[in-house]
Amino acid sequence: MIEVSVIIPNYNHAPFLRQRIDTVLNQTFQDFELIILDDCSSDNSKEIIEFYTENPKISHIVFNDANSGSPFLQWEKGINLAKGKYVWIAESDDWCEPSLLETLVEGVRKDDQCVISYCQMSCINGYNDIKWQSTHRCLAEMVESKAFIQDYLAIKVAIYNASMAIFKRETFKHVSPEFTTYKFSGDRLFWIQIAKQGKTHISGKVLSYFRKHDRDVSGNAYKSGLNFIEELNIINWMYRENLIDDVIYTKAFKKQYKQYWMVRNSIDRNNKNTIAALLSHPLSKKTNTITILSSAIWSAYKKKDKQP
């Protein structure tokens, strides 16, 4: 059995694609297959991908005839093709150190109940400048399921992007396809559903590089306010599933509320009513003070929006 299935879902990342593929192929851990998916790119991605057609590590290359409209639909397609015990979704505009897979596989093997293993990453501006780095308090740690969700996925999200993590493939059969309907936060919902099935190994090593650029998908989500809609829906889902208590729910809710209030004037008007409904009706009774405040604010804003 193949140990790891590596999935590279690509869309218009031709300038970064060769580095991504090469850093996968040059891993010190070599028991893997490589699946490359292209979501009907309009740049020269196909030409670059076809250069690797004869590489023995590649098990599948799939070119979509039409764009799927969601990176998470590509995740689903790749996982359904995968044969490995573990899966690594290596985003097409990122790259990594040669020891990433070796480190993460070594970590996940430490406990049969471990379902996720992830490392730290550097966020790179364009090609070279380091904007920030993720950190962990120790070099390696195994965290129980509920504690990991509460401490690392409920308020803050420690798995910043898929390229920094591997997961046990068999857990995917228990993941709801709902994550594929999201445009921005589907990965957060995905990791929560995986994490609830077992332990998570965290490596403190910085082994992955997340490239921030004008072609990534997050920019439009922030501008439209879609990120708030999806994040609030996920917070509500965690609460309904009893994955977080009232205290954590309130902290997560407040975080979204404060962040929205800072950028509210730049948010797409069409999304404001949806965000207003979510902020005005928290599920936990502990957020009553926020409910009162948000109701008053939204009433004032509705009056203001009606003014010429």
Describe the structure.
It is a single chain. The protein has helices spanning 14-25, 45-50, 71-81, 100-108, 145-153, 186-195, 218-224, 226-240, 246-263, 269-280, 288-306, and strands at residues 4-10, 32-38, 58-63, 86-89, 95-96, 114-125, 129-133, 140-143, 165-168, 199-212. With 308 residues, it is of the alpha/beta class. It folds into 2 domains: 4-215, Spore Coat Polysaccharide Biosynthesis Protein SpsA, Chain A, CATH 3.90.550; 219-306, no CATH class. Strands 1, 2, 3, 4, 5, 6, 7, 8, 9 and 10 form a 10-stranded mixed β-sheet that branches. Helix 5 (145-153) runs antiparallel to helix 6. It starts with a strand and ends with a helix. The model has no long low-confidence stretch (mean pLDDT 91).
Relative helix content: 40-55%
> How many distinct beta strands?
10
Q: Classify the fold: give the CATH topology of the largest domain.
A: Spore Coat Polysaccharide Biosynthesis Protein SpsA, Chain A
Tally of helical segments: 11
Strand content: 15-25%
Q: Termini, distance in Å?
A: 66 Å
CATH superfamily of the largest domain: Spore Coat Polysaccharide Biosynthesis Protein SpsA, Chain A
Radius of gyration: 20 Å
Order of helices and strands: EHEHEHEEHEEEHEHEHHHHH
Q: Which residues sit in consecutive blocks of at least 5 with pLDDT less than 50? A: none
